[in-house]
Design brief:
By secondary structure, this protein is of the alpha/beta class. The chain has 2 domains: 3-188, 3-Layer(aba) Sandwich (Rossmann fold), CATH 3.40.50; 207-369, NAD(P)-binding Rossmann-like Domain (Rossmann fold, 3-Layer(aba) Sandwich), CATH 3.40.50. Helices cover 48% and strands 15% of the residues. It is built from 18 helices and 12 strands. The strands form 2 sheets. It has a 7-stranded mixed beta sheet with strand order 9-8-7-6-10-11-12, sandwiched between helices. Helix 6 crosses helix 18. The two termini are 28 Å apart. The relative contact order is 0.12. The mean pLDDT is 98. NADPH dihydro-nicotinamide-adenine-dinucleotide phosphate binds next to helix 10.
C-alpha cells in the first residue's frame, strides 16, 4: 500500500480509535483513492490528506427543554463544520437517540465528497442531537427545536453554514428551527436552512429530491449496463421515511414493482405491490408503525426485525434500495441477496452497506450505486433552494426536477469516467470517491495551507 496513505490511515485510526463509523467512512475513501495518491507524491508535502480528515471545527452544546409533564430534559447538540473548501458548510441535522460524535463526523465527512459531486458550491457539514422525536407532542418538538436553535444560531448563516433535514428532521422541525432563527437574529435570511415549507421559502421538489435522484442514478446505471432501466423489475426499499417514500414513488412511475418496505421494527412484504398512498398516510400523516399496513392489506405480511440483519433483505428482489440508516445491510444480508439473484443495489441512506457487504457485491459483479453519488440529489436540490432564496424567486416543480435529473446524470457520468480512467470499470464506489477527491484536492492546492 502507498506509504503516505498508510501513515495517514494509521494516524487517523490512532486519533479516533473510538469512532468506528468515522473510521469506516475515512478508510473507504482513502483506500479507493490509492491510484490517485500514487500519481501525486506532492500531496504529502502539503499534508493534503491530513487536512482532509481533520474537521475545521466541531461544536457540541447543551440542549435543555421542558417536556409535557413539566420535566426538564437535557440533550446534547452537535454541528460538525468539516470543510468549507468549496462553499459554505452544508448538510442535514439528525435527531435520533443513536446520534454521537462518530456518527456526526462520518456523515459530515461523506457530505464533503457528496457535495463536491453535485458540481454546486457547497462545503460539508452535519449536525443533530441524541433527542428522539418519536412519540413526542408537537409542543415538545417545538420547544426542543427552539432550544437547539438558540445555541446553533451563533454558528450558522446563509453564507456560513446551512443545515437541512435528515433522520428525524423533516419539514415540521425545519419550520420550528427557522422560526426561532428569525426571532433571535431579527432577519429574514431564507437561505440559512433548506427543506423549508413551501409557504415561506422552500423549494418545490426538495421533498422528493433524494428519492427521485436515487432512482435517476439507478436508471443511468442500469441503462449503461444494458439492463433496460427499472421497468418490470422487482424492488425492495428499506425505511419508510422521506428518502424511501419518494424512491418508491419514482420507481413505481418507471414501472418497477416495489414489494417491500420497512421501519425500525420490521418490514412489510406485499406480493401484490406496495400501496404507497397507504404508506404515506401511516408515516407522513400520523407517524405510526409500518405494521399498521396490515390493517388495510390483510394478506400482506409483517416480518419483525430480530437482530442486526434486517428481514427485508431475505426477500427475493432484482434491486435493493437501502434507505434507512448506516450499516443496515450486512454481509449476511448481501449473501442472501446475491443468492436470490439481485442485479443492483442503490444506496439511498448514508453508508447503508457495511464494508464487507459492499465488497461482496462488487466481487460478485453486482452493480452498486454508492451513497455519496446516488443520494446526492437531496443536497443538490437544497443548493437549488438556496439559489432561489437568493434570487427571491420560486421555480416551478418541473424546472427543479429537470435540474435534479441533469445533476444525477452528470454525477453518474463523473463516477463512470473516473472509474474507467483508473481501470476500475463498473466500480462506481471507487469512481465516486476518485471523482470527488480529485476536485477537492485541486481546490485545496489552490487555496494554500489552510
Ligand atoms: P426519516 O427520518 O424520514 O426516515 C428514516 C427511516 O429509517 C424510518 O423509516 C426509520 O424507521 C428508519 N430508521 C432510522 N433509523 C433506523 C435504525 N437505526 N434502524 C432501522 N431503521 C431505522 O429519514 P430520511 O428518510 O430523511 O433519511 C434516511 C436515510 O437517508 C438516512 O441515512 C439519511 O442520512 C439519508 N439521507 C437523507 C437525505 C434527505 O434529504 N432526507 C439526503 C441524503 C441521505 P422508524 O420510523 O421506525 O424510526
Ligand atoms: O445526507 C444528506 O445529504 C442530507 N441529509 C441532505 C442535506 C441537505 O443539506 O440537504
Amino acid at each position: 500500500m502507498n506509504k503516505y496513505l498508510k501513515n495517514v490511515l494509521s494516524e487517523v485510526k490512532k486519533k479516533n480509535s473510538a469512532e468506528k463509523e468515522y473510521l469506516q467512512a475515512v478508510e473507504e475513501v482513502l483506500l479507493s483513492i490509492e491510484p490517485v495518491i500514487d500519481k501525486h507524491p506532492e500531496y504529502e508535502q502539503i499534508a493534503l490528506l491530513e487536512r482532509m480528515v481533520e474537521p475545521e471545527r466541531i461544536i457540541t452544546f447543551r440542549v435543555p427543554y421542558v417536556n409535557d409533564k413539566g420535566q426538564v430534559i437535557v440533550h446534547r447538540g452537535y454541528r460538525v463544520q468539516f470543510s468549507s473548501l468549496i462553499g459554505p458548510y452544508k448538510g442535514g441535522l439528525r435527531f435520533h437517540p443513536t446520534v454521537n460524535q462518530s456518527i456526526m463526523k462520518f456523515l459530515a465527512f461523506e457530505q464533503i465528497f457528496k457535495n463536491a459531486l453535485t458540481g454546486l458550491p457547497i462545503g460539508g457539514g452535519k449536525g443533530g442531537s441524541d433527542f428522539d422525536p418519536k412519540g413526542k407532542s408537537d409542543g415538545e418538538i417545538m420547544r426542543f427545536c427552539q432550544s437547539f436553535m438558540t445555541e446553533l444560531q451563533r454558528h450558522i448563516g446563509q453564507d456560513i453554514d446551512v443545515p437541512a433535514g435528515d433522520i428525524g428532521v423533516g419539514e415540521r422541525e425545519i419550520g420550528y428551527l427557522f422560526g426561532q432563527y428569525k426571532r433571535i437574529k431579527d432577519v429574514y435570511e431564507g437561505g440559512v436552512l433548506t427543506g423549508k415549507g413551501l409557504s415561506y421559502g422552500g423549494s418545490l421538489a426538495r421533498k422528493e429530491a433524494t428519492g427521485f435522484g436515487l432512482v435517476y442514478f439507478m436508471r443511468e446505471m442500469l441503462d449503461n449496463a444494458g439492463m433496460q432501466s427499472l421497468k418490470g423489475k422487482t424492488v425492495t426499499i428499506s425505511g419508510a421515511g422521506n428518502v424511501a417514500i419518494y424512491a418508491c414513488e419514482k420507481a413505481l412511475e418507471y414501472g418497477a414493482k416495489v414489494v417491500a418496505m420497512s421501519d425500525s421494527k420490521g418490514c412489510i412484504y406485499d406480493k401484490k405491490g406496495i400501496d404507497l398512498e397507504l404508506i404515506k398516510e401511516i408515516k407522513e400523516q400520523h407517524r405510526g408503525p409500518i405494521s399498521e399496513y396490515l390493517n388495510i392489506h390483510k394478506k400482506a405480511e409483517f416480518i419483525e426485525r430480530k437482530n442486526e440483519d434486517s428481514p427485508i433483505w431475505e426477500i427475493k428482489t432484482d434491486i435493493a434500495l437501502p434507505c434507512a440508516t448506516q450499516n443496515e445491510l450486512t454481509l449476511n444480508s448481501a449473501k442472501k441477496l446475491v443468492s436470490n439473484g439481485i442485479i443492483a443495489v442503490g444506496e439511498g441512506a448514508n453508508m447503508p452497506c457495511t464494508k464487507e457487504a459492499t465488497e461482496y457485491f462488487l466481487k460478485n459483479n453486482i452493480l452498486v450505486a454508492p451513497a455519496k453519488a446516488s443520494n446526492a440529489g437531496g443536497v443538490a436540490t437544497s443548493a437549488i433552494e438556496m439559489s432561489q432564496n437568493s434570487m427571491r424567486y420560486y421555480m416551478p416543480f418541473e424546472k427543479v426536477d429537470n435540474k435534479l435529473n441533469n445533476i444525477m446524470v452528470n454525477i453518474f457520468t463523473s463516477c463512470k469516467s473516473a472509474s474507467e480512467k483508473y481501470g476500475l470499470k463498473n466500480n462506481y464506489v471507487a469512481g465516486a470517491n476518485i471523482a470527488s477527491f480529485t476536485k477537492l484536492a485541486k481546490a485545496m492546492q489552490a487555496q494554500g495551507i489552510v
